[in-house]
Amino acid sequence: MRAALAACLTLCAWSAPAYAGCDVAGLKLEDAIAAKSELREDANAQTVRDLRTLRDAAIVLDSYKFGPECERLVAIIRTLTADPEKTIEQSGDTDEEKAEAIEETREPKVPAEKAPAKK
User: Fold this and answer.
1) Residues 97-113: pLDDT tens digits?
2) Is 45 in contact with 52 (CB distance < 8 Å)?
3) 61 and 73 Cβ atoms separated by less than 8 Å
4) For the chain, what is the radius of gyration of the CA atoms?
């Protein structure tokens, strides 16, 4: 998935569409993560993963020409990275059942007719 997003970003960068796109690259998210000690702590790895997921989502929105939505997401990411302590505090939802339900929705579902027979 990340390779596909990276390929999309590269393709978008090399093509010259009429749509200017939003400034996902200008986020310099990896630089921001490296600069903020709070984000480098092991306990905050999920927050960093979430920030990267949001950045990847912005790339996808930009590639599908959803400029305003991409720009809004970039603004949200900037806000979250500007104050890591507040971001980490906000993301304190540790409901394991909720986390499991969300994780389950991330797994691709195979249509019933293509699913292997259960033994």
Assistant:
1) 776 777 788 778 777 67
2) no
3) yes
4) 17
Task: Give the C-alpha distances (Å, rounded to integers) separating 65 from 48, 53, 61, 81.
Answer: 26, 18, 6, 25
Share of the chain above pLDDT 70, in %: 71
Q: Which two tokens stand for residue 51?
A: 């920030």
CA distances from 90 to 33, 66, 67, 86, 117 (A): 17, 27, 27, 6, 43
As a whole number, mean pLDDT of residues 26-49 equals 92
Two tokens, residue 80? 């979250």
**Burial of 77 (C-beta count, 10 Å sphere; 0-12/13-18/19+):** buried
Please, are residues 21 and 67 in contact by the beta-carbon 8 Å criterion? Answer: yes
Q: Where are the domains of the chain?
A: 22-92
Q: To 5 degrees, how large is the angle CA 77–CA 64–CA 83? A: 0
Question: Of 86, 26, 27, which is closest to residue 52 (Cα–Cα)?
Answer: 27
